[in-house]
Every structure is written in C-alpha cells, then in structure tokens.
Amino acid sequence: MNSFSFRLAFAFLFILFFCKQSIESEFDVLRKKESIFVMVVYCEKNKAALETRQTECLKIAEEAEAEINLTLSRWQDLGFTKLILPKAKGEEMQMAIRARTDWAIRYFDIWKNTVILE
Questions:
Q1: Whether 57 contacts 89, CB under 8 Å
Q2: Which has the closest alpha carbon to 40: 22, 24, 57, 23?
C-alpha cells in the first residue's frame, strides 16, 4: 500500500469513527426538533446505546402514552364513532404504538378500528 492510499484510508477511518454524531448527541437534537412519538421510536430502536438516557426515554414514553390514552378516551366520549386525526400526527402515534410491544398489544387493535387519518 503506498503512502497516499494509507493516508486516504486513515483519513476515512478517522472521519468515520470520530466525526460521526453520537447516539446521545443525536438524541439531544431530536429531542428539540421532533415530537414525543418520534422520540419513543428512537429510544426503542437505540435502547442499548441510550442506557444513560433511560430515565429521559421513560419520561418521554409516559408523556406519549398519556397522549395516546387521551386520544382514545376522546373516541369513547364521542360515542364510539370513528376518530379523525391529522395524517402526520396519527402516523407518528401509530409508529410509536408499533415500536413498543406492550403498547402494540394494548392499543393497536383499538387504534386501527377507531382512527381515521386525514
């Protein structure tokens, strides 16, 4: 391997390992920009890497679950008619429900039978 190839490979590896945004710094950026439902999915996908942020992820999950419960309680208040939600927010909520197994078991059947996304 000649000197130029070695330097190029070294530079590539340096950039790959040291300049890549860490999971935790990405968590901070997403926390400021994204909804709690996107954060639930992110926490579930990166559960092992976010051990130091476990309490924050649990708090986010509690907030998201409270909003899901509130949304589904509106369905009950409306006399069990279909609930219409904005498509973007509804899709984020649905992704969060699917991301967590316990939520999928508890909410998904009710969700797919009662929510219409528009």
A1: no
A2: 57
